[in-house]
Design goal:
The protein is an alpha/beta fold. It is built from eight helices and twelve strands. The strands form two sheets. It has a six-stranded parallel beta sheet with strand order 3-2-1-4-5-12, with helices on both faces. Strands 6-11-10-7-8-9 form a six-stranded parallel beta sheet. α2 links the parallel β1 (16-20) and β2. It binds NADP nicotinamide-adenine-dinucleotide phosphate.
């Protein structure tokens, strides 16, 4: 447990941090923050998963109601800094955080994830968005493994000629799906061996993934490489100019600082 200097605490009230979460990095940071007596932190989740993993910090769940709702929440909860540790593809909430923090003059930092880099042996087709991923599958029927997240599935209804193996955490609604689908409900991490076994068993000939970065879901990339499988990779949205935190230590420094730079 990291204790603060009590005399300093009298002069400077504990920092009040909002941690925008929904990622393994946010979880790791919340575990470290739970041991900090100097920082009062609250985690925010969108509420996409019905049974989120337990969090050691006070947690609020659900959207704020756009920029205005977030701005109101920040004021009412007397938040004095924000860490955006959301997924690199969660563009809306990151934009909202930028706008609300700018309006209030609050320090905002992003706990960044390095995107995956193409390695020797990878057969990547990089595309800008999900529509590009659908087009990259081509006209001829294929057996595609989709690991793009439930909300991105409707795009593949435009290519009903393919047979899809879909893995996601929450069950999709039937109207979100293309016609030929086999569904696996599972939450990572997965091992490279298991990923290879699955791809072989299901005779997959193309993997479709976001370039989400991080280690938790990287095994599918390694498995596709080992099997010389074509991989359609959706590029992450281009980053914005706000402060980027390279690791958990930098995030803790930002959380603890009397006045984050
Ligand atoms: P998004 O498109 O950026 O956000 C859509 C709306 O969801 C936001 O406008 C906000 O609603 C609400 N929201 C998102 N994240 C929130 C959070 N941490 N706390 C409170 N409200 C939040 O986000 P998304 O892509 O749907 O992702 C939702 C969550 O899943 C995020 O926490 C993200 O880290 C996690 N996640 C996303 C992906 C992905 O591929 N996109 C993958 C893994 C995990 P209001 O406007 O009402 O505030």
């Amino acid at each position: 447990m990291t204790h603060c200097d009590e005399s300093a605490r009298d002069d400077h009230p504990a920092p009040r941090l909002l941690l925008l979460g929904g990622t393994s990095e946010a979880r790791a940071l919340s575990e470290r923050l739970a041991r900090e007596t100097c920082v009062e932190a609250v985690v925010s989740l969108a509420g996409r998963t019905r049974a989120p993993l337990a969090c050691p910090l006070p947690t609020r769940i659900g959207g704020f109601g756009g920029v205005e709702g977030l701005r109101r929440y920040l004021v009412e909860s007397r938040i004095d800094r924000v860490i955006d540790a959301t997924h690199p593809f969660a563009e809306r909430i990151s934009a909202n955080a930028r706008e609300a923090c700018a309006a209030l003059g609050l320090p905002l930092a992003v706990l960044a994830r390095e995107p995956w880099r193409r390695a020797p042996g990878d057969h990547w087709i990089e595309v800008a968005d999900m529509a590009g991923a659908v087009a990259a599958l081509g006209q001829s029927p294929r057996r595609a493994f989709l690991t793009v997240g439930r909300l991105s599935l409707p795009a593949f209804r435009a290519a009903p000629q393919h047979a899809y193996l879909i893995r996601c955490i929450e069950p999709p609604q039937p109207e979100e799906l293309p016609p030929s689908v086999e569904l696996i409900l599972a939450r990572g991490p997965f091992s490279c061996d298991d990923e290879m076994r699955l791809m072989r068993e299901k005779t997959i000939d193309v993997l479709v993934t976001k370039n989400s970065g991080g280690l938790l879901t990287y095994a599918k990339i390694e498995a596709a490489r080992a099997l010389s499988l074509e991989t359609v990779v959706v590029l992450p949205p281009s980053g914005q100019a706000e402060r980027r935190l390279e690791n958990l230590e930098a995030a803790l420094d930002f959380a603890r600082a009397k006045q984050p730079a």
